[in-house]
Write a structure and sequence with these properties.
By secondary structure, this protein is mainly beta. It contains one helix and eight strands; from the N terminus they run βββββαβββ. A hairpin with a 4-residue loop joins strand 1 and strand 2. It catalyses: 5-hydroxyisourate + H2O = 5-hydroxy-2-oxo-4-ureido-2,5-dihydro-1H-imidazole-5-carboxylate + H(+).
């Protein structure tokens, strides 16, 4: 990402549960659904840092109610570690009704499973 937005209302964290380590250097993208055209519009792209975090995903002004999708490029991540994975990517679709709240979207990941939850 080109700049850091310290007050992003949406944050994420990737944990490689197989190795018990942060999911560092994983490419990801954030998309918003255009409900009229029913297509996903790219909001931003980024890469997790050494701690598995990707700060500055979206500004408070741009974070409006609607449906969003965060796509994690898990296949590329595992390939960079010299391993294969069952999931070439993971897409997490979620709805924002109150953009004044803060949202944390962690991805807990192994080569053959993943889980997520809504944090704050």
């Amino acid at each position: 990402m080109s700049s850091t937005l310290p007050n992003s209302p949406l944050t994420t964290y990737v944990l490689n549960t197989g190795d018990g380590a942060p999911g560092a250097r994983m490419a990801l993208s954030l998309h918003r659904l255009d409900s009229l055209l029913v297509i996903w519009n790219l909001v931003t792209v980024g890469t997790t840092d050494e701690d598995g975090r990707c700060p500055g995903l979206i500004t408070t002004k741009a974070f409006t109610p609607g449906m969003y999708k965060m796509r994690f490029e898990t296949g590329q991540y595992w390939e960079s570690l010299g391993q294969n994975s069952f999931y070439p990517y993971v897409e997490i679709v979620f709805t924002i009704t109150n953009p004044n709240e803060r949202f944390h979207l962690p991805l807990l990941l192994s080569r053959f499973s993943y889980s997520t939850y809504r944090g704050s």
